[in-house]
Design a protein that fits this description.
CATH class of the largest domain in chain A: Alpha Beta
Radius of gyration of chain A: 22 Å
Largest interface: A-B, 42 and 42 residues
Strand content of chain A: 15-25%
Largest sheet of chain A: 7 strands, mixed
Structural class of chain A: alpha/beta
CATH architecture of the largest domain in chain A: 3-Layer(aba) Sandwich
Number of domains of chain A: 2
Helix content of chain A: 40-55%
Shape of chain A: elongated
Oligomer: homodimer
Order of helices and strands of chain A: HHEEEHHEHHHHHHEHEHEEHEHHEHHHE
CATH superfamily of the largest domain in chain A: Vaccinia Virus protein VP39
Distance between the termini of chain A: 51 Å
CATH topology of the largest domain in chain A: Rossmann fold
Chain lengths: 417, 417
C-alpha cells in the first residue's frame, strides 16, 4: 500500500472500499445507473450492481461491468472518468469479458457523444494543468518514469523503448518493431554518419544508443528522469558506446548546436503553453541545413486527457492536435516536410506491452500491490482502446529550416526496401 | 491593349508610362532608391536609374534592375510589391541577367527581413479580401482561368494540368511528371477500381479523366470556370470517357456521396474564412471508410500573397499554413493520415512551364499584348523564386474519418516501385 500511495496512483482512503455491498439494490440505484450509462452514449456493454443482476444490457454487448457497492456507484455518477479508474483499481468494480473490449466499447460510445470528456468536468481548467514549470515537470516525470527500471523491464522490449513502435509487417515482434521504429526515425532525419544529434527526452536512452551504434552519430540526450538517465549511462558504459552523452536536464536548458534534433515521446509532457519555448530551443540549436523530428501522441480534436489518466498516471500531460503542434514550428518559420500518423502502430505496441505485463502481473503485485497492478492494467487496456477507436493519434513530424533546399524529392529513403 | 484591360492585368492608365526619362538623375533619386533597396533587405542585385549608371551594387549581384523613369521610382517607393509588377509589365522597369535569378535574390533578401510583405501595406486587410462569396469566387476564377484554353495550351502539358507535378526522378518531362502526380494522388487515396469520387475544382478535367481511365472510378468533377468545364466535357466526349461527369458549380453546392474526395489546387482560391465550409461539404459527402486528399499551395508562416499577385494575377487567393488548413479537418474530427511537402516539385514544374511559355511568347504577345506577356512571365518567374526560396510550399494532405481503422500500416502503397 505504501508504494502506491507514494506514487499517487490511488489515495489511501480508497482502500476502505473494495467491499461487496450487502445492502439491497434499490430501484433508485438502477435508475441512476441507467442514466449514467445512457449519458456515456449507451456503450455496447452489460452492467450489474452488487446483487449480480444485469441492470443494463445494451445491444452487441460482449463485456460486463459489475459495480460492487453503492459508494462506487455514486462516485461514478459524480465523475465517471475519474472514479471508474479509481474504483476499478481498488476492486470496487470488476469487468468480465476482457478489459480492452470493454474499454473499446465505452470509448466508441463516448466518442459518439463528443463532448463527454469536457462535460463531466465543467470547471476543470485543463490548460492550466499543463503549464508545466521546470519544477512541475520534474515532479510529473518522476511520478511516472521513476517507478523503477525493474518495473518497466518486465513489459518493455530489451532496448527499453517506452514509445510507439513501427510495424512494417503486422506480425513482427515488439523487439523487431522497436528497432524498425528507430530505423524509421533515423531515415526520416537522414542520418548518414557522424551527425551531431540532440535528443530531447531520451527515456532509457535506446534511440541514442541506436543512432550512435548504427550511424556513428554523436548524440547529446536529455532527460529529467534521474532513474532513466542513470540506467542509460550505465548501459552505454557496459555496451561500450562512446558516441552518447546522457544529460539529466530539462529540454528548456538545452544549448549547443546540432545537425539533427529529435524528440520521441516527450511532447506529451511539454504542455501547449510551452510549445513555442520548445521551438525556440530547436531554433537556437539546429544547424542551417539540419533536420528535426517530433514524435508525439496526438488527437484529432483538442480535448483534455481522461481525468483519471491525467491525475493518476500521467500528471501534466496533454496530446496535441496537429494545429496545436504547429506552435512549435510556425513562430520560427520551420518548414514541415512530412507528417505520418502511426495510430494503429501504437495500438499494436500496447497489445505487446499488455501481453508481457499480464504475464508478469504476479511479480508486479509483489513489487507494488494489487491496486497498483490493476491501475496499470487499466491504463494499458484503456490506451489500446483509445488508439483503436481514434481518441488518440500518433504523429511523426519531420521538419527543417525555412528555405532549406537540400531535401530529398521523394520519400523512398524513409522506407526500408 | 483591350485584352489586358479586360483581364485586369494592368490598368490602361499605366501605358502612358513606358517612357525612358530624359530628365537628369538627381542625388535625391539615388538616395531614395538606396533606401528602398535597403528596406528590401539589401538583395544581391544591381540597380540603375534612367541614366544607366548603377546606383546600387550589392555583393554577389548577378542581375540588374533598370528603372526607366522617375514616376516608376516614386511608385516603387510607395508600394514596391504592387508597382514592381506593374512597372515591369508595362516596360518601365527592365531586368538584366535573368528574371528568375533576380526574383530569387529579392525573395531571399525579403524573407530575411520577415515583415516586409505586411509592412509595405499596413492598412491592407488581406483576410477580408479572401472572404470569397459565391459571386466573388466566380469573378475571381473567371479572371484567371477563363483567359482562353488556347493560351494555357501553349505552356501546360497535354493533359492541361495547372497544378504542381511530381518528379520521382528529377529529369523526367513535364508530361511524365504530371502523370506521376495523378498516379501519386490516386495511390494516396487508395483507388483500386470503381470508387465514387468527388473532385472539387477540376481544372480542365485531367485528374478526373485519369481516375476514370486508369482506375475505372466514377468521378463527379466540379468547377466554376465555364471555359474549363466546356473544354473538359468536350475532351471526355472525344476520348470516349464515360466515367466522368463535369459539373459547372461551386464546391459549396456539392451534394451526394463519395468514397474519395479530392481537391487539387482549389484551396488557394477558397479563402481561410471558408475552410470550415469546405470541411462541412466533405463531411456531408464522404463515406464512412472513405479517403480524402487536399493538395494546395501553402506557407510556413501566415502572410498575404504579394499584393501584385493578389491584385493582378490571382484575385481572392491565399496560400494557407498547415495550422490554417486544419480548420477544414478538426471541426469535423477528420483524421489526418499523411502530409507531404512537394515544394521543390513546384519549382521544377514552373521551370517547365516557363520554358514552354518563353518559347511561345511571340504568340502570346499576338494573342494579348506585350504588357500581358511580360506580366505572366513575371508571375511564372516570381513563382519559381517563391518555391525555391520557401516563400511558398505545396502541401498534400491525406485524411479519413475519425476512427477509420481500414488504413494501411505503411506508405509503401503510395510509392511506385
Amino acid at each position: 500500500m505504501e508504494s502506491s500511495k507514494q506514487n499517487g496512483v490511488i489515495p489511501t482512503s480508497f482502500f476502505s472500499g473494495r467491499a461487496r455491498d450487502s445492502r439491497k439494490v434499490l430501484e433508485l440505484d438502477r435508475r441512476l445507473l441507467r442514466k449514467l450509462i445512457e449519458g456515456m452514449g449507451a456503450p455496447a456493454i452489460k452492467v450489474a450492481l452488487w446483487d449480480g443482476e444485469d441492470v443494463v444490457s445494451n445491444p452487441g454487448a460482449t463485456t460486463r461491468m459489475i459495480i460492487h457497492n453503492r459508494i462506487s456507484l455514486l462516485r461514478l455518477i459524480g465523475n465517471p472518468l475519474l472514479y471508474f479508474g479509481d474504483d476499478y483499481s481498488s476492486g470496487n468494480i470488476d469487468i468480465e469479458g476482457g478489459l480492452v473490449n470493454f474499454m473499446e466499447a465505452v470509448a466508441r460510445a463516448m466518442d459518439g457523444t463528443g463532448q463527454i470528456r469536457r462535460r463531466t468536468s465543467p470547471v476543470h481548467n485543463w490548460h492550466r494543468e499543463t503549464f508545466n514549470s521546470l519544477s512541475d515537470s520534474r515532479k510529473n516525470i518522476h511520478h511516472h518514469y521513476d517507478l523503477g527500471n525493474d518495473f518497466y523491464r518486465l513489459w518493455l522490449d530489451k532496448e527499453m523503448l517506452y514509445t510507439c513502435a513501427y510495424y512494417p509487417k503486422p506480425h513482427i515482434s515488439l523487439e523487431a518493431a522497436q528497432i524498425a521504429k528507430m530505423e524509421l526515425v533515423c531515415r526520416k532525419v537522414r542520418l548518414s554518419g557522424g551527425e551531431r544529434v540532440i535528443e530531447a527526452g531520451c527515456g532509457w536512452g535506446g534511440l541514442a544508443r541506436y543512432m550512435a551504434k548504427r550511424y556513428g552519430a554523436k548524440v547529446r540526450a536529455f532527460n529529467i528522469s534521474k532513474e532513466q538517465v542513470a540506467y542509460a549511462k550505465e548501459r552505454a558504459r557496459k555496451e561500450g558506446i562512446f558516441g552518447v552523452e546522457y544529460i539529466e536536464d530539462d529540454y528548456r536548458n538545452i544549448t549547443g548546436e546540432c545537425d539533427v534534433f529529435v524528440s520521441v515521446g516527450m511532447l506529451e509532457h511539454v504542455g501547449p503553453n510551452n510549445y513555442r519555448r520548445l521551438g525556440q530551443v530547436i531554433d537556437s540549436t539546429l544547424s542551417d541545413t539540419g533536420f528535426g523530428l517530433i514524435h508525439s501522441i496526438g488527437q484529432d480534436v483538442a480535448e483534455p486527457l481522461t481525468e483519471w489518466i491525467e491525475k493518476r498516471i500521467f500528471p501534466g500531460s496533454y496530446p496535441p492536435t496537429i494545429r496545436e503542434m504547429m506552435e512549435i514550428f510556425e513562430p520560427y518559420g520551420f518548414n514541415v516536410l512530412d507528417l505520418e500518423n502511426l495510430r494503429l502502430h501504437y495500438a499494436r505496441t500496447l497489445e505487446h506491452w499488455l501481453e508481457r505485463y499480464e504475464a508478469n502481473e504476479g511479480e508486479i503485485v509483489r513489487m507494488f500491490d494489487e491496486s497498483f497492478a490493476r491501475a496499470w492494467r487499466l491504463y494499458l487496456c484503456g490506451s489500446i482502446a483509445a488508439f483503436r477507436t481514434g481518441s488518440l493519434q500518433l504523429f511523426q513530424v519531420v521538419f527543417t529550416r525555412h528555405g532549406n533546399n537540400n531535401v530529398p524529392l521523394t520519400r523512398h529513403h524513409m522506407l526500408e526496401p
